[in-house]
Design goal:
alpha+beta, two-stranded antiparallel ribbon, 2 helices
């Protein structure tokens, strides 16, 4: 064995001795830490369990508080929106707290821009309430007890009973060819003035009353 090999072997032996000593010291330290921890648990186990239970109670209480806050804000938002639509002239306002919705018979001034104003006003108050348009046929006092008239209508423009954004109601398909390609006329009624007229199926969604809204005949 050369001198370099002997020196290298000695260095490896010294490193092994150091590692062995450090490992023994670490084992002793781990045993001591485990023993101290065990003694601490045995001495203070009641306080530790109490602290854990209190922490869990606080977490659960915070969770329920958050749920209640969301529920309260939703109820508050629906109430504020209900007052808004009533002040704007809506009729037949009905609140469904279970489904978190408000339905009402809207006047012609209830455009999409008006609904956006409601949405923005609620947002400024910190209330996250979605305001969307659905179709609901207006009812009078004599028909107020008729549940069919109170149903929210989500129809296609060519379906009987569909009411477009201008308060024009589709009364059904007429046996009369329309003026558009492969179209038939549909009977239309203005819910503002009662005027009845014809419209192509492709135009129902956007028609205006020729009598009171300046629509084409």
């Amino acid at each position: 064995m050369t001198d370099k090999e002997r020196e290298r072997s000695y260095e490896h032996y010294k490193q092994w001795q150091n590692n062995k000593a450090r490992y023994e010291h670490e084992c002793v330290a781990y045993v001591l830490l485990f023993g101290i921890g065990l003694l601490f648990l045995l001495k203070y186990w009641y306080s530790i369990i109490t602290g854990v239970v209190i922490t869990l109670i606080i977490i659960v209480a915070a969770r329920f508080l958050n749920i209640f806050k969301k529920w309260y804000n939703m109820r508050r938002g629906i109430k504020v929106l209900e007052n808004m639509v009533k002040d704007a002239g809506a009729t037949n306002v009905e609140v469904d707290h279970k489904n978190r919705t408000i339905t009402f018979a809207s006047a012609p001034q209830f455009t999409n821009d008006k609904l956006s104003e409601f949405q923005n006003a609620l947002s400024k108050m910190g209330l996250k309430v979605s305001v969307n348009r659905v179709k609901k046929e207006a009812v009078n006092k004599e028909d107020a007890m008729n549940s069919n008239d109170k149903k929210i209508r989500l129809l296609k423009s060519t379906d009987v009973g569909y009411i477009n954004k201008n308060n024009q109601k589709n009364l059904g398909k007429a046996d009369k060819p329309g003026t558009d390609n492969n179209q038939y006329f549909y009977d239309m009624e203005c819910l503002d003035c009662g005027n009845r007229y014809y419209a192509n199926g492709t135009d129902i969604w956007d028609r205006k009353c020729p009598n009171c809204q300046g629509g084409r005949p």
